[in-house]
Amino acid sequence: MYLTLTTTHRPATDLGFLLHKHPDRVQQFEQSYGTATVFYPEATEERCTAALLLEIDSVRLARTAGRDTPDFSLAQYVNDRSYAASSLLGAALADVFSTARGGRCRSRQELADSAIPLVITIPALPCRGGAGIAVRIFEPLGWQVTAEAIPLDEQYQDWGDSRYVRLTLTGTLRLADALNQLYVLLPVLDEAKHYWQGPDEVDKLLRSGAGWLATHPDRTMITRRYLGRRSALTRAALARLAELDDDREETLDPEIEEETAEPEERRRPLNEQRHEAMLAVLRDLGVTSVIDCGCGSGQFLTKLIKERSLTRIAGMDVSARALELARRRLRLDRLSEREAGRIELFQGALTYTDERLSGYDAAVLMEVIEHLDPPRLGALERVVFGDARPGAVLISTPNSEYNPHYQGLSGMRHPDHRFEWTQAEFAAWARRVAGDHGYSVTLSGIGEPDAELGAPTQLAVFRRG
C-alpha cells in the first residue's frame, strides 16, 4: 500500500517538521500486520513529498485477524486487499503520524495551525460505489478530487472497471485535518475494516471527525460505513453529533431514527433549546446589534436574521470552511441589498484583539469557551470583556455534572473539548470575570434539569456596568 503527500508551501521542507519525520532519513515502523516505511522521494525548498509505504505480512495478518474480520481464512493469503489502500493503511497512518494528526508541532506551531497547499495521491484504493463516491465524500471538505476507475484488465477494456480507483486530492487545508480525514475516509470508501469494532470506535470517529464530520452533507453515510453498519454504534454516534454540533438537520435519517436510551431532552434537540434561550435573553435585553462569536456553519445566524429588531448582525469564526457553509446556509448571494447589509461574516480568533469585534450591543459565545485550552482563556477574557466590551455577553457551556445521563459517553461530550466545568467551577469563573471587567452576571441552565445534577447546559449572562 502506498500514499504520497506533497506540498509547495515555501519552504516546502517544513513538511518534515509538521510530520515529525526528517526528510533525510528513511524510517520504519513495525505494525502487527506488516512494516510501515516513511521516506521522501523529493525534498526541496519549492516542493517536498513524503511517502508512506505499508508492506503487508500476510501470514502475520492472518494470525492476528479474528473470524469476524472481512477476509478471514484462505482469502487472507490469496485476495488483493493486501495490495490496495484500506483500513490497514489508515491504521498505519494514524500510528506513524499520530503527533501530526493532533496538530502539534513545537517548532512550527503557527504553520501547523495554518492551511497549506497539499496534494495527496493513492495509486489503488478500494471504492465501493465507484469513483463518484470518492468525489462525493472528499469534495465537500475543500478538495479538488480526481478519481480514475482502474479497469479489471488494461488489455481487455470490455471487461469493465474494477472496484478500485486512482485517487488524487488537491487542496489547501491544515495538515492535521487532511490526515484525520484520510484516517476516517479510507475505510469508509473500502467499507471494510481489518479489526473488530467496539463502542470505542464511536469516540475514535468523533475525535478524528472533529471540525468537519458534523457539517458534511453525507455524514450519515460516512458514519454508517465507518462503523460497519452496526446500528447501535451508528445511532450512538449520530445522536452525539446531533446534540454536540451546530448542524442538526438530517443527522438522524428515517432509516435509523429509533428509540434509544438517551436523556429525555435529547428528543427535543438541546441545540434548539440553546438557540431559544439565547434569543429570549437578547429580546429581553432589547439589543439591536449582536455578534455570534464562534458562529460555526451559521445555524444560530439563521435565527438571528429573522429577528426584525436586529439591524446589525455579525458572525465570526476561526474556520474559513465553516464561514463558507454559513454563507451558503444564509443564502447571502440571494438576499436583497438591504437584507445583505444587515449581516457580516468574517474570520478571526477570540484570543487576538480585533477591532471588528467592537461596537455591538451583545456578543454570543455559544458552546465556545470549552474548545480553548485553559491557559488561553485569559486572552479571551481580555479580548471580549476588556477590548470589545459589548453591552452584554451571553456564554453557554456544558455542565459536566450532567454527563452521567449520556449512556456510552466516556470522557467529555466532544473530542475537541479542552475542559468541561461543574456548575461551581463555571460560576466561580463567571463571577471573577464579571468583577474584573465591570460586569454583573446572572447564571441559569438550559435543558430539562436533573434535581441533583442540574441542567445539561450552563448559561451566564453578563451585563456591563
TrEMBL record:
<keyword id="KW-0808">Transferase</keyword>
<dbReference type="InterPro" id="IPR038546">
    <property type="entry name" value="Hen1_N_sf"/>
</dbReference>
<feature type="domain" description="Hen1 N-terminal">
    <location>
        <begin position="1"/>
        <end position="242"/>
    </location>
</feature>
<keyword id="KW-0460">Magnesium</keyword>
<dbReference type="GO" id="GO:0046872">
    <property type="term" value="F:metal ion binding"/>
</dbReference>
<keyword id="KW-0489">Methyltransferase</keyword>
<protein>
    <recommendedName>
        <fullName>Small RNA 2'-O-methyltransferase</fullName>
        <ecNumber>2.1.1.386</ecNumber>
    </recommendedName>
</protein>
<comment type="similarity">
    <text>Belongs to the methyltransferase superfamily. HEN1 family.</text>
</comment>
<dbReference type="InterPro" id="IPR029063">
    <property type="entry name" value="SAM-dependent_MTases_sf"/>
</dbReference>
<dbReference type="InterPro" id="IPR024026">
    <property type="entry name" value="3'-RNA_MeTfrase_Hen1_bac"/>
</dbReference>
<keyword id="KW-0479">Metal-binding</keyword>
<keyword id="KW-0943">RNA-mediated gene silencing</keyword>
<feature type="compositionally biased region" description="Basic and acidic residues">
    <location>
        <begin position="263"/>
        <end position="272"/>
    </location>
</feature>
<dbReference type="InterPro" id="IPR024740">
    <property type="entry name" value="Hen1_N"/>
</dbReference>
<keyword id="KW-0949">S-adenosyl-L-methionine</keyword>
<dbReference type="GO" id="GO:0090486">
    <property type="term" value="F:small RNA 2'-O-methyltransferase activity"/>
</dbReference>
<feature type="compositionally biased region" description="Acidic residues">
    <location>
        <begin position="248"/>
        <end position="262"/>
    </location>
</feature>
<keyword id="KW-0694">RNA-binding</keyword>
<feature type="domain" description="Methyltransferase type 12">
    <location>
        <begin position="292"/>
        <end position="383"/>
    </location>
</feature>
<dbReference type="Pfam" id="PF12623">
    <property type="entry name" value="Hen1_L"/>
</dbReference>
<dbReference type="GO" id="GO:0031047">
    <property type="term" value="P:regulatory ncRNA-mediated gene silencing"/>
</dbReference>
<dbReference type="GO" id="GO:0003723">
    <property type="term" value="F:RNA binding"/>
</dbReference>
<dbReference type="GO" id="GO:0001510">
    <property type="term" value="P:RNA methylation"/>
</dbReference>
<dbReference type="InterPro" id="IPR026610">
    <property type="entry name" value="Hen1"/>
</dbReference>
<dbReference type="InterPro" id="IPR013217">
    <property type="entry name" value="Methyltransf_12"/>
</dbReference>
<feature type="region of interest" description="Disordered">
    <location>
        <begin position="248"/>
        <end position="272"/>
    </location>
</feature>
<dbReference type="Pfam" id="PF08242">
    <property type="entry name" value="Methyltransf_12"/>
</dbReference>
